[in-house]
């Protein structure tokens, strides 16, 4: 049986078009990063579906993934980290996409939706 995360991982890597969604580097090995951390021990059942939804995942190169651990405040400002209980699908993120760099919403079908930049950022 294929895990929810394995399916979502393939969807997110396809969505990225070979780009690191954090820095825009092409063709680097990418990690799939949970914008809203799963917590110690992971999640199961319905919570696994929410945690592993494409809207909660980013395709990042290793340096960008490390940045989420090293500079969480910056990454929250960029939308790469989303605090509980927020819904990642409603939290825009500054990303590099095949459609260009900007502030994007992510959906669970593996699509980007451009949103107006926040003048405060």
How confident overall, as mean pLDDT? Answer: 88
The strands making up the biggest β-sheet line up spatially as 3-4-5
Strand content: 15-25%
Distance between the termini: 43 Å
Characterize the largest beta sheet: strand count, sense, and whether it forms a barrel: 3 strands, antiparallel
Per DSSP, the total helix count is: 4
Q: How many discrete structural domains?
A: 1
Shape: globular
Q: What would your notes on this structure say?
A:
With 121 residues, the protein is α+β, with helices and mostly antiparallel strands. The chain has one domain. It contains 4 helices and 5 strands. The strands form 2 sheets. The chain has a 3-stranded antiparallel beta sheet with strand order 3-4-5, with no helix packed on it.
Topology:
Elements: H1 4-16, E1 30-34, H2 46-51, E2 57-61, H3 62-70, H4 72-78, E3 93-97, E4 100-106, E5 112-114
Antiparallel strand pairs: 1-2, 3-4, 4-5
Tags for this entry?
121 residues, alpha+beta, two-stranded antiparallel sheet, 4 helices
Q: How would you summarize this macromolecular structure in one to three sentences?
A:
The protein is of the alpha+beta class.
